[in-house]
Amino acid sequence: MYAKSKFLLFVFFFIVVSDSSSQNFMRSNEWKKYKNEFTVGLGPSNFLGDLGGLNREGTHLSPVDLELNLTTMSVALGYKYKLQKWLNFCFDLTYLKVKGDDKLTKDIYRNNRNLNFRSRIFEADIRLELLYMHNAVGNRYKIKRTKRNRMKTKSWDITGFIGIGGFYFNPEGMDKNGKWHKLKPLRTEGQGLPGGPKPYSNYAICIPMGIGYHYYIDRKWSVGLEFNFRKTFTDYIDDVSTVYYDKTQLKNLVGPKAAEMSDPSKGAIPGATMPDASGGSAQRGDIYKDSYMSLQVKVGYILKKSRKRKKVKLRSKF
Length: 318
Known about the structure:
The protein is mainly β. 12% of the residues lie in helices and 39% in strands. The strands form two sheets. Strands 1-2-3-4-5-8-9-10 form an eight-stranded antiparallel beta barrel. A hairpin with a 5-residue loop joins strand 6 and strand 7. Helix 3 packs antiparallel against helix 4. The longest helix is centred in the N-terminal third of the chain and has 19 residues. It is elongated, with a radius of gyration of 28 Å. The chain starts with a helix and ends in a 15-residue tail after the last strand.
């Protein structure tokens, strides 16, 4: 009797595990009918870089250094193609806005620096998405006038993804009169000028990585939540990277507005933006690359592959 109970328990466990890993498909190859999905995403975005942050020295890539007051919105359009039950290929087009402002931190050095920026980001990325799907099946055969007929299939998945993308950005800064100016043409750190660094590009590469949760309302619609963190290979999303350029030369070579936007410091720390005793320029930013992120609610529409009808050949009796 004990052995029989163990056998029945094993059978029950096997059925439950098989059902939970069925990926919302009753037959082993049924997932091939639902390979294509289009998605729309909407949610907040934020930035980690040189400006603003905590009321102390910033921590590289730390989410606790986020300035939540500068959270903005992002929107995305996407496409998923199911390579396997457990693997998706994804393509996304995303629009974000990011901001930073030294006025919002009480760290004395960054607050005295008094720099600010905003930038629109247009991003395209591809990524691979690994997923685990759970499926709880209700009444398969929909027998009329039974309680089980009211039970629905409850399916959800947890995903992890990583990929590669490219994006466009163009930082702007606000002057003391409240007017916004594009910062790259002002060469605020002497980019392309004698003794200065090379001009930076408005285009850069990013590595999107993150996690997601998706609930399948039925076989056509899904809704989920995705967190996407981008590590980038540029330090100029906020137009701040290296050291201060000589303001007199910048004024003579580019103009007075360039000198103003390169160093609007409050003067609370004497000599903070001036060359040191050895003649070396004062630090304006750090060496770490910028990053940004988004948290989006995503709605998906799943396409079912249409069945090809076989042509019936009619044979002539003659």
